[in-house]
Specification:
It contains 4 helices and 7 strands. The protein has 158 residues and is α/β, with parallel strands linked by helices.
Length: 158
């Protein structure tokens, strides 16, 4: 068996401390010292809600990477920006929903960010139709943080 170098041991220990700290304190709002990236990701999340609520299909699709995968509850994964866009077209033609995201925490590493959030979907009259949680993975493409993976489900008390 090969001996681990002192550097390897230190890296493993630091990684373990990082994981333990996050698991022990899941209410931590952000795991990153870079407030600039945090602000950009929060703006991307806000832009998603704004585009959805305005039923602005074009603006909404600008927030997705070409290779994005969306995993709605109860149906097969929607693979690719074009297929995801068709789903939004159907939603906008069929419903008039309003969406509100609350970011619970963010994990940011390099050009990838993972957003854990809570959401509510409501009617025009403000009646909550659905409340749930989501994971959105964004990757930096140029100056934009684009959705590359997303999954959500609703709370059982809906």
């Amino acid at each position: 068996m090969r001996k681990l170098s002192l550097i390897s041991v230190a890296v493993v220990l630091l990684l373990g401390v990082f994981v333990w700290a996050f698991v022990a304190n899941p209410s931590a709002s952000v795991v990153s010292a870079d407030k600039g990236r945090e602000s950009q990701i929060r703006e991307a999340s806000k832009a998603w809600d704004e585009a959805f609520n305005a039923e602005d299909h074009s603006a909404l699709m600008e927030l997705y990477a070409d290779e994005a995968v969306s995993m709605p509850p109860g149906i097969p994964a929607l693979e690719g920006k074009e297929v995801i866009g068709q789903d939004f077209e159907y939603i906008f033609e069929t419903y008039n929903w309003k969406h509100e995201t609350t970011i619970v925490d963010l994990l940011i590493s390099g050009n990838v960010a993972v957003e854990r959030g809570a959401y509510t979907m409501s009617s025009e009259e403000g009646e909550t139709l659905e409340a749930g949680k989501h994971i959105v993975v964004r990757q930096k493409h140029g100056n934009a943080w684009l959705v590359v993976r997303e999954i959500w489900n609703w709370n059982t008390d809906n």
